[in-house]
Amino acid sequence: MSTYTLPDLPYDYSALEPHISARIMELHHSKHHKAYVDGANNALAAMAEARDTGNFANINRLEKDLAFHLGGHVNHSIFWTNLAPGAGGTPEGEVAAALQEFFGSFDAFKAHFNAVSLGIQGSGWGVLAWDPVGAQLVIQQLFDQQGNTAQGTIPILQLDMWEHAFYLDYQNVKADYVQAFWNIVNWENVSQRFDAARSGAASTLLIS
Is the torsion defined by CA of 85, 86, 89, 93 positive or negative? Predict the structure, then answer.
């Protein structure tokens, strides 16, 4: 049975400073993300044992565990590549055109994305995703690691709004964290994910 593994970051823990500190990045990646990887693998192993023994008494809990932990693994894997040192600025090319088409302007997109991210009640993510049914970009609030987004939408840009992502640097001033995020958005990666989502090849970039 395949197991999930913690991906290496494409940059050093300190590379995103001063916007995200090395201490947060180290804890976030090596502790929090690893816990999701371990949790997903443990859920899979427990499901395999249930099949072997025919004892499905805990299957509902295991299904929820897998959804939560696998969601955490996928979300973080995308998030790391959505960020890059010395990045930020504004997108170019087809991503820029799409943001203009679907949100009116880049500034309107940012305002919408910021409001969604800051409006999350509890823990979750701000997500820019491609909706293949409507063939359009949508902004979503993802609750926890796996709730409240439309089935089939493909994330191309994610912002982690769990407290562990920002509290050591920004305490409870979420707005400062969200503003800092735009200084390190890797628009090249977002563009690659956008192209893959529209072409139906999103699985090739899902967590790479």
Answer: negative
Domain boundaries, the chain: 22-82, 93-204
Taking 90 as the threshold, does the pLDDT of residue 2 lie above it?
A: no
- 120, two tokens: 């999350």
> Structure tokens of 4?
């999930």
Summarised one tens digit per residue, pLDDT across range 75-106 is 999 999 999 999 999 999 999 999 999 999 99
The encoded tokens of residue 38 equal 């371990």
User: pTM here?
Assistant: 0.93
Q: CB under 8 Å to 119, separation ≥6 — which residues?
A: 141
For 105-133, write each residue's pLDDT tens digit: 999 999 999 999 999 999 999 999 999 99
Instruction: Residues 93-204: name the CATH superfamily.
Output: Iron/manganese superoxide dismutase, C-terminal domain (3.55.40.20)
The beta-carbon contacts of 128-135 under 8 Å, at least 24 apart in sequence, are 128/155, 128/156, 128/157, 128/158, 128/190, 129/153, 129/154, 129/155, 129/156, 130/154, 130/156, 130/194, 130/197, 130/198, 130/202, 132/197, 132/200, 135/198
Give the SS3 label for residue 10.
coil
Report the DSSP beta bridge partners of residue 83. 185
**Residue 130 DSSP SS3:** strand
Homologous superfamily of 22-82:
Fe,Mn superoxide dismutase (SOD) domain (1.10.287.990)
